[in-house]
What does this fold into?
Amino acid sequence: NTIDFFLLGTRGVLSLTPEKTSIENAYRFLRASVLRMLRSISQHRGYQNVVRDAELDFAGGTDLKKLVRKLAEADPEAVSLDRVLRTLRVGIVLNQVWDLDELAVAEHVRTAARRHLMLALRFYGPVRHEDVVPRALRRSKSPILDVLANSTIADDIEGVVDHIVRDADHAGATLGQGHS
Amino acid sequence: MTDHYAVLDVPTDAKPSEIGAAYRSLRELYDDDLATYGLLDESERRVELEQIERAYFVLSDYARRKAYDRQLQAEGHAGPWYEAPAAPERITDAAAPAGMQEPAPEPASEPEVVAEPEPAKPQSAPKREIPAIPEEGISGDWLRQVREARGMDLEDLSQRIKITMTQLENIERERFDRLPAPVYLRGFLQSYARELGIDPERVVTDYLAIRERWAEHP
It folds into this structure.
């Protein structure tokens, strides 16, 4: 499913808008991904009951920090789980930005994810709101960069792609290898 | 014992200014529920705020911090300790935690807001000849000259490319400390250049080179 596909990639890119529902969806997806990863590790190392019990303990809102602590107690010889979580390379793109001030939302989401989901998210950049986009999409099925090549949205998408490529180069990975 | 340094996400030898900045940034994050929506409920958000306030209360005051550091040391927590300069630096520009008895905390205030300069008065200069690119490369001032030569005022440009006038002015005046990181700035410079009919790549390359020099010696 989507989460498995996401976790298989060398990196994941999550697009969100500076709105509550979108931010909530992003956190839910990230939390589910982290849990899936922890479940898979614990299954492999034979203490899956710890994850299951912890999930029951914190029904509705698994406290990942506590869960990781429990897993570490269950298996002190395992590699540091927070280090494992850091292998999850995820970046965010802030879509539908109306004002530069909204960039603060991306920084706050990164801080919150680091503090509460133990994920070091990258920020790949903003994509500004452009009124003509929905109209252009309705008229044409061509890629947006072809239809609106000289637009602010094209500039921003180019910036995002540039950031992702440089990030991939930095990590020694290459584009096209399991992006999600 | 609560690790106040971990709560504020700062190293144990953090300068008071770093502690102040971390505090303000976290207050901004947890004061509003937008960026924690779906991650923390209201009570969890309050707990976070309380911890942050308590940590700042201790670490923002030299004497309290020193006493806390001694306590940490006694409990065997090693780490590089902050040594105050001859005249101890004290942060006084942000809120102190509610409910603390003494010493009297600073009155609660909102996170510091940097006053933005008044936007430049729209200019409707007649079109002039485009100035030649200076030998040292494209600068913010040159961009302004081109814009004015095109007879375009900041407000007009702002509406066309959807970047606030303040930020456009920051670009032209090279106020790098108020501009976003290069990866985002790039897109704004491209939009700016394209609107003015100048080579976007050249603008990006030259302008970011100036920014880089500034970053090395701010």
